[in-house]
Design brief:
This protein is α/β, with parallel strands linked by helices. The chain has 2 domains: 79-320, Aspartate Aminotransferase, domain 2 (3-Layer(aba) Sandwich); 328-452, Aspartate Aminotransferase, domain 1 (Alpha-Beta Complex). The protein has 13 helices and 11 strands. The longest helix is centred in the C-terminal third of the chain and has 22 residues, at 430-451. The chain is globular. The chain binds pyridoxal-5'-phosphate. Residues 121-123, 126, 149, 151, 194, 198, 223, 225-226, 256, 268 line the site of pyridoxal-5'-phosphate.
C-alpha cells in the first residue's frame, strides 16, 4: 500500500546531485554503525506501525494528510546535503528556492511586493505575525474569535500582549456585531480573522472585519493556516468566497504548507503585506553572514536554523502542481469540499444524526440523535470507537451546542457543549471513498444504537 515505486526517481536524482560535486577528491563516507543500519531501520519501521493509517482514505479524522511523493523525495534528496536556510552560507540553493516558492504562495493572495518566509509551522508563523503586530501596536489588545486556534491566546501570553476572545455565531464564525462593539471601545491593535477554523472549517466574515478597520484602523491578521489554499478553489459558499476574495487586504497572512500544501511537517509560512516590517527583525549577529551582500532569510525570521529541505520539497511540489485556479492542485481541494458536502447530505437525510451548518471547507461535524445532549455526547464516543474497529478513523471534538441548535429538536440541553464526531476530508481521494465511509459509519452507528437499547 505504501508507495515504493517512486524510490527509483530518488536514486536517479541522487546521481544527478552527485554530479554537481564531481570536482572534489574522492571520499568514502563510512559512518560508524553501518553494519546494523538495515536492522535498526527495520526495527524503526516496526515501531512506526503503531500509527493510525493517516495516508489511507479511511483515515478521515484529524487534519492529517501524507505529503505528495515529490515533496517526500525532494526532502529526502536535500537530506544528503542538509542545507540550513538561516543564511546563504548554509543553504544557498534552498534559500533561493524558498524565496521562489514563498513568492508563488504570496501571488495566490495577489501580493507581489511583500515580506515572507517559511517557518516551523503555523504556530511559529502566527507567533511572528503577532510579534510584528505587537511591535507596531504596543500595549494594545489582540482579538480573535472563540473558535480561533488556541495558539493565539497562548502566543499573546508569550509576547505579553493583552488578548480577548470575540464570541462566535451559530456557524462558528466571529460575530462581527460583537466585534464592532468591542473595537468601538478602543484599544484594539490587531484582529485575527480565522480563514477556516481548526474545528469546523468555518471562515470568518472578512469583508465585515475589513469594513470595521476603515473606521478603527487596527491590524488584520488572517490565520489561514488551514484554509489559505482554498483561495484557489471554485464553488465555495458565498461567505467563504467573499472572505477569500478579500484576504489580500489583510496586513499579514499565515498559511501552512504542511496542512493542505502536501508538505511534510515543519513547513508553515508567514507573509506581510508591507515589506517595511523587515526593519523590526534587525539584529547584529557578528558571525552568521559574510558570504554575500544579498538578503539572508535569517535577517527576516525569528527562527535561526531552518531546514532547507523543507524549501526544496515545497519548491518541487509547486513546480509539479502549480498554485493556479482550476489547476490539478486546486481541483484536489475542491474534491475535499465535495466529499464533505456529500457526507453532510447523507447525515442530514438520516434521522439517526443531527447536523448543524453545512461545511464551508472540507470538515464535517455531526452528532447522533439522543434524548439529551449528555447522552448524545456519550454515543459519540461509542461510535468513534466502533468505527475505528471497522477501520474508519474519525475524530471527536467538543463544540458549543448552539452549532446544532436549529436541528436539535426535543433533545434536552443539559450541557453547554456537545461532544461531536468530526471528519476532515482533506485528501482528494476522499471523494471516491464517501460511499464507503458512509457505509462504515452507518454500520458502526447501528451497532452502537442497538447495544444501547
Ligand atoms: C493548525 C493551525 C494552527 C497551528 O499550526 P501548526 O502548524 O499546528 O503549528 C494555527 N491556526 C489554525 C487555524 C490552524 O488550523
Amino acid at each position: 500500500m505504501l508507495d515504493q515505486k517512486s524510490m527509483s526517481a530518488l536514486v536517479e536524482a541522487l546521481k544527478r546531485l552527485d554530479d554537481g560535486f564531481a570536482g572534489l577528491p574522492a571520499y568514502e563516507g563510512n559512518a560508524p554503525g553501518m553494519g546494523q543500519l538495515a536492522d535498526v531501520l527495520k526495527a524503526t519501521a516496526e515501531r512506526l506501525q503503531d500509527n493510525f493509517p493517516y495516508f489511507h482514505p479511511l483515515y478521515a479524522g484529524q487534519m492529517l494528510k501524507p505529503p505528495h511523493p515529490v515533496a517526500r523525495l525532494a526532502y529526502a534528496l536535500a537530506m544528503w546535503i542538509n542545507p540550513n536556510n538561516h543564511a546563504l552560507d548554509g543553504g544557498r540553493a534552498t534559500s533561493l528556492m524558498e524565496k521562489e516558492a514563498v513568492a508563488e504562495i504570496a501571488a495566490m493572495f495577489g501580493w507581489k511586493n511583500f515580506l515572507g518566509h517559511l517557518c516551523g509551522g503555523g504556530t511559529m508563523a502566527n507567533l511572528e505575525a503577532l510579534w510584528v503586530a505587537g511591535q507596531l501596536h504596543p500595549k494594545k489588545t489582540i482579538l480573535a474569535s472563540e473558535q480561533a486556534h488556541y495558539t493565539h491566546k497562548r502566543i499573546s501570553g508569550v509576547l505579553q500582549l493583552a488578548f480577548e476572545s470575540v464570541p462566535c455565531d451559530a456557524r462558528g464564525r466571529m460575530d462581527v456585531q460583537a466585534l464592532a462593539k468591542r473595537v468601538a471601545r478602543g484599544d484594539v491593535g490587531t484582529v485575527v480573522a480565522t480563514m477556516g477554523t481548526t474545528a469546523t472549517g468555518s471562515v470568518d466574515a472578512l469583508p465585515g472585519i475589513l469594513a470595521l478597520r476603515e473606521k478603527h484602523s487596527f491590524r488584520i491578521h488572517a490565520d489561514a493556516a488551514y484554509g489559505g489554499y482554498f483561495v484557489l478553489a471554485e464553488h465555495l459558499g458565498e461567505n467563504a468566497a467573499r472572505a477569500f476574495a478579500g484576504i489580500g487586504e489583510a496586513d499579514s497572512i499565515v498559511i501552512d504548507p504542511h496542512k493542505h500544501g502536501l508538505q511534510p511537517y515543519g513547513c508553515g509560512c508567514v507573509l506581510f503585506r508591507d515589506p517595511e516590517v523587515g526593519r523590526l527583525y534587525k539584529h547584529d549577529s557578528p558571525y552568521t553572514y559574510f558570504s554575500s551582500a544579498e538578503l539572508h532569510l535569517g535577517e527576516i525570521s525569528l527562527e535561526c536554523s531552518r531546514p532547507g529541505a523543507a524549501a526544496a520539497a515545497l519548491w518541487a511540489t509547486q513546480r509539479l502542481l502549480p498554485l493556479t485556479h482550476k489547476g490539478e492542485f486546486a481541483q484536489g481541494l475542491e474534491r475535499g469540499t465535495k466529499a464533505a458536502r456529500a457526507l453532510f447530505e447523507k447525515l442530514k437525510a438520516d434521522a439517526r444524526f443531527v447536523t448543524g451548518f453545512a461545511p464551508e471547507l472540507d470538515i464535517v461535524v455531526f452528532v447522533p440523535r439522543a434524548a439529551a445532549v449528555s447522552e448524545a455526547s456519550q454515543l459519540t464516543r461509542s461510535i468513534f470507537e466502533a468505527a475505528a474497529k471497522h477501520q474508519l478513523h474519525l475524530a471527536v471534538a467538543e463544540l458549543p451546542v448552539k452549532f446544532w441548535e436549529e436541528n436539535l429538536g426535543a433533545m434536552k440541553r443539559d450541557r453547554e457543549t456537545i461532544t461531536c464526531l468530526r471528519s476532515v476530508l482533506m485528501k482528494p481521494e476522499h471523494l471516491d471513498w464517501v460511499e464507503r465511509i458512509w457505509e462504515l459509519l452507518s454500520l458502526s452507528t447501528s451497532e452502537v444504537l442497538a447495544a444501547n437499547t
